[in-house]
Specification:
Blueprint: H1 2-18, H2 24-147, E1 149-151, E2 159-165, E3 170-176, H3 182-191
Antiparallel strand pairs: 1-2, 2-3
Helix pairs in contact: 1-2
């Protein structure tokens, strides 16, 4: 820029030297043209400097925007990684849940099968008991007729109670199964039977 100012000074000096000359008018016109060119050049230089400053400011804005975009992209990658990890964990939990459901459904099927088997057995037992009940009643009546013992079915589980209707007199029976052996109880009851036919 200083070079242009020097040129302007030189131009002014030339104008003053040429003023005395006849070619002064023509030189003046050339110097005026040169001066306009210098002014235009200075304006162009000022415009170029202004544009360079604008470009530098725009580049700075672009650099800031790039940094912000990079930061946002990095945060997005971190969020994506977190979501992928969470999705993998949820997928594993879903797989475990499905496996548990399959296991529970299998157990439910087994329980249903067991329930059906138990129902079938209960039905068979009911059918068997209806068939054998008359036989059991007959055996109990025969036992009662032979032993002549009338049992007290309301006695405690470990108590053996009843009345033996012997040939002469009725005799009460009261035995404690916890204190006496099974052999003793059996022998005692057999001893009550009348062996005379």
């Amino acid at each position: 820029m200083a070079a242009f100012r020097d040129m302007e000074d030189v131009s002014q000096g030339l104008l003053s030297l040429l003023a005395a000359n006849r070619a002064e008018v023509q030189h003046r016109r050339l110097l005026a043209l040169q001066e306009r060119m210098v002014e235009r050049l200075l304006r162009t230089q000022d415009e170029a400097e202004r544009r360079l400053l604008e470009i530098a400011a725009a580049e700075e804005d672009v650099a800031k925007n790039v940094l912000v975009a990079q930061s946002q992209a990095q945060a997005g990658r971190a969020e994506l990684k977190r979501l992928q990890t969470e999705m993998e964990r949820a997928s594993q939990e879903d797989t475990q849940f499905q496996n548990r459901m399959i296991y529970l459904l299998k157990e439910l099927d087994e329980l249903k099968a067991e329930e059906a088997e138990m129902a079938r057995r209960e039905k068979e037992m009911e059918e068997d008991s209806t068939v054998t009940l008359p036989v059991a009643v007959h055996v109990a009546q025969l036992y009662n007729h032979i032993s002549k013992i009338e049992w007290d079915y309301e006695a405690e589980p470990n108590q053996i109670r009843g009345i033996h209707h012997g040939p002469d007199v009725a005799q009460p029976i009261e035995l404690d199964a916890l204190e006496l052996s099974g052999k003793f109880v059996s022998d005692y009851l057999w001893g009550l039977l009348n062996t005379e036919w």
